[in-house]
Amino acid sequence: MASPLTPSHVVIAYDATKDRGVHELTLAIDSLQKRGDVLHSGDTIIVLGVLHRVVHPMGYHTKPCVDFLENSIRAVEEEVTKKVDMYVNMLLQSAGKCEDQGVSIEVKVTAGFPVKQVILQEIMACKAAWVVLDRAYHRHLRRDLTFYLKQIPCKVAIIQDSLAVEVVRPHTTDETDTIEHKLFFSLSKPVPLSNQGNENSEPLITCGSCPVSIDSPESSEILKNHFVTSPTFKLRDYGTLLNLGSSSKQENSGVQTKADNKPSTVPQKIQKQNNAFRERCSDAPILCSRCGTRTEMYVKDSMTFSYSEIQLATNDFSKENLLGEGGYGHVYKGELKDGQQIAAKVRKEASTQGFKEFHSEVYVLSFARHKNIVMLLGYCCKENLNILVYEYICHNSLEWHLFDEKAAALEWHQRHSIAIGTAKGLRFLHEECRGGPIIHRDTRPSNILLTHDYVPMLGDFGLAKWKTTGDDTDPTRIIGTLGYLAPEYAENGIVSVRTDVYAFGMVLLQLITGRKIIDSNGEGQVQSLREWAEPIIQRLALHELIDLRLGDSYETYGVYLMAKAAYLCIQRSPEMRPSMGEVVRVLEGESDNFHHLGVRFVPEQHTK
Ligand SMILES: Nc1ncnc2c1ncn2[C@@H]1O[C@H](COP(=O)(O)OP(=O)(O)OP(=O)(O)O)[C@@H](O)[C@H]1O
């Protein structure tokens, strides 16, 4: 292990899956510099972004396991490259400051899972002298720390929530266990100094132990061969393997790899998928554990259904199969020949949703694959009839659970997980969906469907539309539902992702209070939920807010977080509202302040 005075590597391990503000990284590096006991002249800071979720070419998120990497190298490569460039740009200023201290910065993004294993391998690979762990993505840092302290031989520090760096173990250790080595996909790039430009910094791809140039024609071939390797060896061997320059050298190292005796199957697999028509994916995620249903992931070669197929599935659109009627038309439950349960939405003749909206919905939904989004399986067009075929979501809508007499009161933990799941669905549409952002435009409880596991699924994209550059201002087409419409949308027709944030804030208030959006105040007058709830939140009188049906069975901190998120979301000014990514972080208790937001959750009594 390098002594403190020889140039060494200091790894800052970050979660690259989440959006991070520039200030978070730069402040962490500042505080590292200020300490004086971690960085020395000649050292290199490696900002390691761990990408533990990547976007599947179909648009939903998945773990970058070896199997996935093997089949989707290009997609991962693209995502990793984007992240590396983003980090490099964020760190340009820090690189200048570090240069004065004789320290350089390098960015490395690694797609792999599990996170702890990625961090461990990367630390061993560069023989780091220090690892600085970002507390923000370790929800169970205390437990994870035991793992790191046991497995990592180098010195350990943590970035606190305040972004200060706290040293946890100021010395190295020799006691490390043998670990199973996994293969991940990495790309690294030095952060240039302002006078250097960016051109000379050729990025390096590494797949496991083998660096190759990103532009190298052999890169795909090498990646293909290396993603399938999975040797087991002692940590101490790793360093010697890592410096090898080509795949053949690795083979010479004598490590037995699966690639040595397994012919590449990638091209055949891709071809098979292209030819497949609605082929089911075997690793489809569970949709509902009670019903035993799985989310079907049809390969999107064709999404068209024949009319007779839907007619048969819905028992000829029988009354018994009718689920309900909405603005679009009648919705029928059905079962396809292969057992897949569906909800078929048949457009009303006089539906307010015309052909244009129909195509908008099909187009938008074909990109939206996420565990909190109702999946569109396909559609059918017959003469002037439009039918959308969705996966069937088995446990009614949130509207039903909150307000139907037959529904049992939702428990607190269910409300909390519904809030987080819905927020993640919206975050996906706004920030993560391929080709997005997509604005939902009609977020409300009746468009949030639930499984028996109380997993919320956002549906009804009839009003969604692609966001082009800037805000969409067409005051003539106000669509959505009163009470959930953000003021700038209701008054001036201005639509942006922040109008969804507002509507989501209203849903949060309903989850906390169990109240309708407009209710009677008990004196025969109507009162809007927002007007009633906002001053109560400002007084932090959360007990006045909470749904009486919950009794004492709620978690005060959870209510606080949800009320805080709601309060931020329903700000009149769209700029004051958080992004959905930030909302998720508030709900999960991960972040307590957003420096860029003018309004903080500062209750009145604290400001007096
Ligand atoms: N994918 C689905 N799985 C199960 N039930 C569904 C599905 N989609 C819709 N439904 C149910 O069908 C009924 C009608 O739904 P629809 O979305 O058309 O109307 P709505 O949300 O009630 O009103 P609007 O069209 O004005 O948004 C509702 O009871 C809804 O819960």
TrEMBL record:
<feature type="region of interest" description="Disordered">
    <location>
        <begin position="246"/>
        <end position="268"/>
    </location>
</feature>
<dbReference type="InterPro" id="IPR000719">
    <property type="entry name" value="Prot_kinase_dom"/>
</dbReference>
<protein>
    <recommendedName>
        <fullName>Protein kinase domain-containing protein</fullName>
    </recommendedName>
</protein>
<keyword id="KW-0547">Nucleotide-binding</keyword>
<keyword id="KW-0723">Serine/threonine-protein kinase</keyword>
<keyword id="KW-0808">Transferase</keyword>
<feature type="binding site">
    <location>
        <position position="345"/>
    </location>
    <ligand>
        <name>ATP</name>
    </ligand>
</feature>
<dbReference type="InterPro" id="IPR011009">
    <property type="entry name" value="Kinase-like_dom_sf"/>
</dbReference>
<keyword id="KW-0418">Kinase</keyword>
<dbReference type="GO" id="GO:0005524">
    <property type="term" value="F:ATP binding"/>
</dbReference>
<dbReference type="GO" id="GO:0004674">
    <property type="term" value="F:protein serine/threonine kinase activity"/>
</dbReference>
<feature type="domain" description="Protein kinase">
    <location>
        <begin position="317"/>
        <end position="599"/>
    </location>
</feature>
<dbReference type="Pfam" id="PF00069">
    <property type="entry name" value="Pkinase"/>
</dbReference>
<dbReference type="InterPro" id="IPR017441">
    <property type="entry name" value="Protein_kinase_ATP_BS"/>
</dbReference>
<keyword id="KW-0067">ATP-binding</keyword>
